[in-house]
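Hey L., structure's done. Input below.
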Amino acid sequence: SFGKVMQVRKKDTNRIYALKTIRKAHIISRSEVAHTLAERSVLAQINNPFIVPLKFTFQSPEKLYFVLAFVNGGELFHHLQKEQRFDVNRSRFYTAELLCALECLHGFNVIYRDLKPENILLDYQGHIALCDFGLCKLDMKDEDRTNTFCGTPEYLAPELLMGNGYNKTVDWWTLGVLLYEMLTGLPPFYDENTNEMYRKILSEPLHFPGPEVVP
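Output:
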């Protein structure tokens, strides 16, 4: 979810952390209380090498503070923007680690719902760390469905767009979209016109590029 993130040092140990600061008035005015509580709940209960761990939480009268592990390799988004696309081996590596992260979330009955390069960090060894859990849906068993329209347009699954309810499988659709983007540089149904992009997601066949595009 939204919030200012800073690199900080804990005085008694000299350890470096990422401090996420969220103004209470902001989340109340934007009806984001439930999303913020969901993010804290997910981070507090899950321990996985491919998910950014929550170390501490505290609050002041005006703000909430999440103290997270500091992941210093930057967003996957910036690496993809700089390099335009990744080769097959690198894309496969990131996808495998993301699959492990999503399987972990699903095992806790959590749908992530916002997988995109901006929400994936890289550590100093090149491993991924999933972050930003503000759009997660909790308590979703395999047979459950939800209807909330949320996520990032180019990554939305068809069943979410149709409005008839969806389940954990939307995360697998989004992982496929992300893999396609890592290999080619753009999501498979991308269009500058959002409504046209939604139409393509719902009705256009998926075209796989040739070897001249995928390195």
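The chain has seven helices and six strands. The longest helix spans residues 88-107.

-- N.
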